[in-house]
C-alpha cells in the first residue's frame, strides 16, 4: 500500500479562533504498540474553543503547551498501519480523551495526556496513537455520529451511570434534569431516555425545546423566559425534585440546582456555560447546600476507556444515533469553531476531514 508523505493539520497558538492556521507536516510513523490512523471525522467540543482562545486554564494538572498545537480530541478514523495486536489494518476506531485513562478514577497523571491539549489533537488527516488509547467504532453509526461520542457521549454516560457499578447501567424510573441543548446535554437526553428515565430539559430557545421533545424529553423549560426554572422543576416533580442533574451552567445555575435536587440526589458538576466565577454577595456556602438535601456533589471529568466501551455496547443495543447538528468540511474548520462558539447548535458540530 502506498502511503501519502504529507499530513495536513490545523494549528492553534491559543490566541483566538481567527488565528488558527492550516499547515502541513510529514506523515508520522507508528512505533511498537502504536497505530497510524487516517482520520475521517472530528467532532468539536466547547473545550476546543476554550483551548483555541487561550481560556482553558482551570486544570492545574494538565501542564502547558507553549508551541503551536493541533486542537480537538474526538475523532473517528481507520487504522492504516498497525504495530499492535489490538487492531488490524482497515478497522474503524474512536479516540479516547485522556489517552492513558483506561479504567477507574481519573488521576492527575491522566490529565497530562489529554488530546488537543496538552497533547497534539486530532484536527489533522493522520495521527499516530498508542493502540490502547483507541476503541472500536460501533458499525451501525456513521463516522460523523461516532466521532461525537468520546467526550460528549461519555461525559453524559458518566453523569447517568458513573456512580453505579461498571457493567450495571441504570436510570429506569429516575428523574433527570439536563441544562441546555449542546453536545453533552443532547447525548444525555438520548442516554437517559433509552435508560427509561424521565427527562426535564432547559434551553434559551423554544425551537430547541421542541426538537428536544421530538427526541423524547418529557418536560421542557425555557430558562430565559422562566428565570426561576428551579421552581418549575419542583412543580413538575410534585415538590420532590430530580434524582440526577447535569449541571452544565456553573456560576449562574448551581445554586438553583441545589434548590431542585431530590433528597439524596446527584448533581454532576460538568460545565460552566454561564461562567466560572461565583457572583459576589451573601450566599449560602456550597457545603451547606450539599448537606441540606444530603446530596452527592460529584465533579465530573469525562471517563475511562472501560466506561466508553460499556457505553458503546448500550448505544449498539439501543441503536442510538447521536444528533449531528451540522457538518463542516476540513477547510471550513474555522467556521465550525465560530458556529459552535455562538451556541446556535442543537447537539454536535462535526468537521469531516476526508
Ligand atoms: N466535565 C467534563 O468532563 C466535560 C465534558 C464535556 C463538556 N464539559 C463542559 O460542559 C459544558 C457543555 O459542553 P458542551 O460541549 O455540551 O457545550 P456546547 O455544545 O457548546 O453547549 C452549548 C449550549 O449550552 C447551553 N447553555 C449556555 N448557557 C447556559 C446556561 N446559562 N444554562 C443552561 N444552558 C446553557 C446553550 O443551550 P441553549 O441554546 O439550549 O440555551 C448552548 O447552546 C461546557 O462548559 C464544557 O466545557 C465538561
Task: List segments where confidence is low: pLDDT < 50 over at least 5 consecutive residues.
Answer: none
Q: So what's the CATH class of the largest domain?
A: Alpha Beta
The pLDDT mean sits at 95
> Could you tell me which ligands this complex binds, including any ions or cofactors?
NADP nicotinamide-adenine-dinucleotide phosphate
Task: Please name the CATH architecture of the largest domain.
Answer: Alpha-Beta Complex
Distance between the termini: 18 Å
Q: Quote the beta fraction.
A: 25-35%
**Most strands sheet:** 7 strands, mixed
Domain Enoyl reductase (ER): 15-351
GO molecular function: oxidoreductase activity
Protein name: NAD(P)-binding protein
Pfam families: ADH_N, ADH_zinc_N
Produce the secondary structure layout.
Elements: E1 6-11, E2 21-26, E3 34-44, H1 46-52, E4 74-82, E5 92-95, H2 108-111, E6 126-130, E7 134-136, H3 143-146, H4 149-161, E8 175-179, H5 183-194, E9 198-203, H6 206-214, E10 219-222, H7 229-236, E11 242-247, H8 254-260, E12 261-269, H9 286-292, E13 296-299, H10 305-318, E14 324-329, H11 333-342, E15 348-352
Parallel strand pairs: 8-9, 8-11, 9-10, 11-12, 12-13, 14-15
Antiparallel strand pairs: 1-2, 3-4, 3-6, 3-15, 4-5, 5-7
Helix pairs in contact: 4-5, 7-8
Bound molecules: NADP nicotinamide-adenine-dinucleotide phosphate (NAP).
NADP nicotinamide-adenine-dinucleotide phosphate (NAP) is lined by residues 45-47, 151-152, 155, 179-185, 202-205, 208, 223, 248-249, 252-253, 270-274, 300-302, 340, 343.
GO molecular function: oxidoreductase activity
Domain Enoyl reductase (ER): 15-351
Protein name: NAD(P)-binding protein
Amino acid at each position: 500500500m502506498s502511503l501519502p508523505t504529507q499530513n495536513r493539520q490545523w494549528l492553534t497558538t491559543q490566541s483566538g479562533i481567527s488565528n488558527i492556521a492550516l499547515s502541513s507536516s510529514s506523515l508520522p510513523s507508528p512505533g511498537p504498540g502504536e497505530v497510524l490512523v487516517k482520520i475521517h471525522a472530528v467532532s468539536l467540543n466547547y473545550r476546543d474553543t476554550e483551548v483555541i482562545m487561550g481560556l482553558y486554564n482551570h486544570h492545574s494538572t494538565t501542564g502547558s503547551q507553549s508551541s503551536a498545537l493541533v486542537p480537538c480530541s474526538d475523532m473517528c478514523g481507520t487504522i492504516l498501519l498497525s504495530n499492535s495486536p489490538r487492531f488490524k489494518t482497515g478497522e474503524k476506531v474512536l479516540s479516547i480523551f485522556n489517552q492513558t485513562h483506561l479504567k477507574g478514577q481519573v488521576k492527575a497523571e491522566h490529565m497530562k495526556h489529554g488530546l488537543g491539549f496538552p497533547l497534539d489533537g486530532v484536527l489533522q488527516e493522520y495521527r499516530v496513537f498508542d493502540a490502547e488509547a483507541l476503541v472500536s467504532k460501533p458499525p451501525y453509526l456513521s463516522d460523523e455520529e461516532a466521532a461525537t461520542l468520546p467526550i460528549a457521549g461519555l461525559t453524559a454516560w458518566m453523569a447517568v451511570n458513573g456512580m453505579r457499578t461498571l457493567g450495571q447501567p441504570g436510570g429506569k424510573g429516575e428523574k433527570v434534569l439536563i441544562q441546555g441543548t449542546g453536545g453533552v446535554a443532547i447525548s444525555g437526553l438520548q442516554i437517559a431516555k433509552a435508560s427509561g428515565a424521565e427527562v426535564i430539559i432547559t434551553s434559551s430557545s423554544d425551537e430547541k425545546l421542541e426538537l428536544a421533545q421530538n427526541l423524547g424529553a418529557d418536560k421542557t423549560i425555557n430558562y430565559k423566559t422562566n428565570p426561576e426554572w428551579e421552581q418549575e422543576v419542583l412543580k413538575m416533580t410534585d415538590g420532590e425534585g430530580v434524582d440526577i442533574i447535569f449541571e452544565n451552567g456553573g456560576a449562574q445555575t448551581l445554586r438553583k440546582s441545589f434548590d431542585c435536587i431530590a433528597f439524596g440526589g446527584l448533581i454532576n458538576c460538568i460545565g460552566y456555560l454561564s461562567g466560572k466565577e461565583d457572583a459576589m454577595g451573601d450566599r449560602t456556602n456550597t457545603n451547606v447546600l450539599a448537606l441540606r438535601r444530603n446530596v452527592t456533589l460529584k465533579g465530573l471529568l469525562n471517563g475511562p476507556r472501560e466506561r466508553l466501551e460499556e457505553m458503546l455496547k448500550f448505544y449498539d443495543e439501543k441503536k442510538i444515533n447521536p444528533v449531528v447538528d451540522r457538518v463542516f468540511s476540513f477547510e471550513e474548520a474555522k467556521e465550525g469553531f465560530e458556529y459552535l462558539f455562538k451556541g446556535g447548535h442543537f447537539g454536535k458540530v462535526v468537521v469531516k476531514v476526508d
